[in-house]
């Protein structure tokens, strides 16, 4: 699970821009993670700029691009990138050891279609990603902020849904997953009310985990214990 951003929304759902909206969490890097940061960042790292990046320039080709917000330690993101070499992948994570771990794993897997940001997701989305440029946005297991008084800190709110929609191509998909049923209900409520989206679920609620989202070790353990995971997929129309 990843602390994607410390952005907060007020009662009306307005994004509260703080002087610094996030904290880059340095954490303690292992030797391997530090080495990966040093060796792989020049190859796979994207330095934050307030201007939109040119995806063709960044990846050296025209291809559909998938962006993941808060990839944690990056294991499933690397697995996805390896399994779909025809797609471009961008990951955003504020936790430095996670970025280092992801770079190390990507290098070991020989993945060349992945780029990563060590930055706040909201800021990257707002400024560095061009409107209508993404085929899929992934938000897997964001911090559930399960205490009721903290629900306003949940990243999935109306302005966030609108921001994601603006970055998706028509036909592009916002894919969310959580292992907190209450958060899945909150996500569904926000996304159903968000204009310009269509729920891909035939039953109007959740979908089966799609093949492109790998089963995490944590999730597999949860399945064995009878814990649920809820996937939602909303298409930009």
UniProtKB/TrEMBL annotation:
Keywords of this entry: Methyltransferase, S-adenosyl-L-methionine, Transferase, tRNA processing
Gene Ontology cellular-component annotations: tRNA methyltransferase complex
Record's keyword annotation contains Nucleotidyltransferase: no
Pfam families: Methyltransf_4
Entry similarity comment: Belongs to the class I-like SAM-binding methyltransferase superfamily. TrmB family.
Keyword Methyltransferase annotated: yes
Binding residues for substrate: 147, 179, 216-219
First-tier enzyme category under EC: transferase
InterPro entries the record matches: SAM-dependent_MTases_sf, tRNA_(Gua-N-7)_MeTrfase_Trmb, tRNA_methyltr_TrmB_bact
Family matches, as HAMAP family: tRNA_methyltr_TrmB
Residues that hold S-adenosyl-L-methionine according to the record: 68, 93, 120, 143
The enzyme's E.C. designation: 2.1.1.33
NCBIfam families: tRNA (guanosine(46)-N7)-methyltransferase TrmB (TIGR00091)
Catalytic reaction equation(s): guanosine(46) in tRNA + S-adenosyl-L-methionine = N(7)-methylguanosine(46) in tRNA + S-adenosyl-L-homocysteine
Gene for this chain: trmB
Role description: Catalyzes the formation of N(7)-methylguanine at position 46 (m7G46) in tRNA.
GO molecular function: tRNA (guanine(46)-N7)-methyltransferase activity
Pathway entry: tRNA modification; N(7)-methylguanine-tRNA biosynthesis
Protein name per Swiss-Prot or TrEMBL: tRNA (guanine-N(7)-)-methyltransferase
């Amino acid at each position: 699970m990843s602390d994607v951003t410390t952005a907060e929304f007020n009662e009306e759902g307005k994004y509260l821009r703080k002087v610094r909206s996030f904290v880059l969490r340095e954490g303690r890097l292992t030797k391997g993670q530090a080495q990966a940061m040093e060796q792989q960042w020049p190859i796979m790292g994207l330095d934050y700029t307030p201007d939109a990046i040119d995806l063709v320039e960044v990846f050296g080709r025209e291809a559909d691009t998938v962006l993941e917000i808060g990839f944690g330690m990056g294991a499933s993101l690397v697995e996805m990138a390896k399994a779909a070499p025809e797609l471009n992948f961008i990951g955003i994570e504020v936790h430095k050891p996670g970025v280092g771990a992801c770079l190390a794993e990507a290098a070991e897997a020989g993945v060349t279609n992945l780029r990563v940001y060590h930055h706040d997701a909201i800021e990257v989305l707002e400024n560095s990603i061009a409107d209508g440029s993404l085929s899929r946005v992934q938000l897997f297991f964001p911090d559930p902020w399960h205490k009721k008084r903290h629900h306003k800190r949940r990243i999935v709110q109306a302005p966030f849904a609108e921001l994601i929609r603006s970055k998706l191509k028509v036909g592009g998909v916002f894919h969310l997953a959580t292992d907190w049923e209450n958060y899945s209900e909150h996500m569904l409520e926000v996304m159903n009310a968000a204009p310009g989206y269509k729920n891909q679920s035939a039953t109007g609620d959740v979908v089966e985990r799609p093949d492109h989202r790998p089963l995490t070790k944590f999730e597999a353990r949860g399945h064995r214990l009878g814990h649920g995971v809820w996937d939602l997929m909303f298409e930009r129309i």
